[in-house]
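Page 47, continued from p. 46.
Same chain as before, 656 aa.
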Amino acid sequence: MADQKAASDALVSIPALLARNVEEHGAKAAYREKEYGIWQSWTWEEAARQIEDLALGFLSLGINRGDFVAIIGRNRPYLYWAMVAAQSVGAVPVPLYQDANAEEMAYVLGHCGARFVVVDDQEQVDKVIEVQDQLHQFEHLVYLDPRGMRKYDHSHLHQYSHIQAIGRAAYDEFNPSLERRLGEITYDTTCVMLYTSGTTGKPKGVVLSNRNVIETSRSSAEFDHLTADEEVLAYLPMAWVGDFIFSVGQAYWTGFCVNCPESADTMMTDLREIGPTYYFAPPRFFETQLTSVMIRMEDAGRFKKWLFHHYMAIARKVGPAILDGKPVSAMDRVRYALGNLFVYGPLKNTLGLSRVRVGYTAGEAIGPEIFEFYRSLGINLKQLYGQTEATVFITQQPDGEVRADTVGIPSPGVEVEIRDNGEVYYRSPGVFEEYYKNPESTADTKDAEGWVATGDAGFFEEGSGHLRIIDRAKDVGKMADGRLFAPKYVENKLKFYPNILEAVVFGAGREMCTAFINIDLTAVGNWAERNNIAYASYQELAAHPEVYATVQKHVEEVNESVAQDEMLSGCQIHRFLILHKELDADDGELTRTRKVRRRIIEEKYADLITALYDGSKEIFTETEVTYEDGRKGSISATLEIRDVKVLPTSQRMAAQ
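Result:
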């Protein structure tokens, strides 16, 4: 026992866990990456050598303790190695969203004062060069992919492999310094700084210590019995805390293998080839997958379509119970087994989820219908509730206690309480150290006793002890007649329909609820093609009368469902319009993690909201948009506004 405790006490950093993994799992695959259609693999020993070479190279460039090293690019082993190399020399990695524009990057790079930036390719190099005059502390830019980089000024621009080669050649010179810095790392040393998505303003730099990351990784891995044999696919933004914990924290704690897809375009193919056993995806991804399935079913023949719907009805009835080990009749088990042979098994294989032992979704609430669809297939999909400030985990769902309407019980080591105003508070070993250069926000969020305000409204269920999140506390309000207003509840129901990509519901302080709808261009475009309906743009398709009629039907079905909830029946939608453009992060309407920026949308589309409430049947609007190359433009349209059937409360009560 004493030896175990001593070993545990020595594991105070990610580099220390790396050394442990080399000793215990040295010849086992630690990373894989698909390049040019072929999977490349690195063992823990090989990864450690790559990281050491880069760390020595950083020292040759003059990196100091406490320097910030920005990491920008898609998920690649080399960029994960850059994070660990930075930690090894006492620096702090700061991953950024690769699809952020130059202006967004300039804010983060300037705010943290990054001296070093490590990027994937020429596109990211160009973004940094575009704003480098605003970055007074910036000194060195390291790029991974040399394509297109030949004619650049290389006085402060370095190829990744060259830095490693310099480090390797100067091993004798810099290794003593590297060993010294590794020995100085403690449990309270900063491990990483991650920026919030910025739904309400400028992103804040969340400082997480080694204690935060390792304690959280250890307890969450034990909760789900994760081992070194797991396989994960690293495809989510590296700047997101979820990816950091799954692909770095838990990966280094357990020693499992991190697989990186070749590109976003090949992600689904790569997912099927890897067949992860431990899987994480935000609700948007599961919604997109379900949309793809439904589109294929619409194109299928009559018998195949009948087979799918017949066995999915059986799956919805008994699938979750079988998954949770609950009693199910022998006949239903036989039917489900046949369904697994003909439908569920092939479908899970197509989705790349055949081997998933533990799956999670988080970031936003997932629609209950979508959640139940995956669990009915036999996929152990669970919800967790977390934040960047918590190093992800606040609550998790134990096996056998998984439900669509809760987010589970407090994670190991986490205390959760509901304050008098209904807001959820927590404290745990994962609670962040501070917001960088922002003591006021730190004090507003975390009190002297370590309790953190989540900004979410929720309550614990009596009996089960499970936490239910209603909505963002600032978004939950009252309607003019005092009824509860929780927009996310309705939006998630709307997004269950494959034709609806995004929805924004309004109603706080008003007499009725209204909504903006974004159609899913893939799903609706497929419908248009099957019905020989020509269209030239998203705007033209969104305005089509049959599209409006279909969306109206969906909204009315959601109203019927919402009307059944005693507490939220006032959130039925009375009027809606289909927006003439997709909500876009480049236009500031969504965060980089695809969360709706409600306040910005309310300001930007104030004329449309006014029209929804003043009885107008249509409205002309003009909107500024940002193109992929950064240019600004504008689009205009006359939007139809439709009234929707609403189920009166009295009628609902009479029906009961």
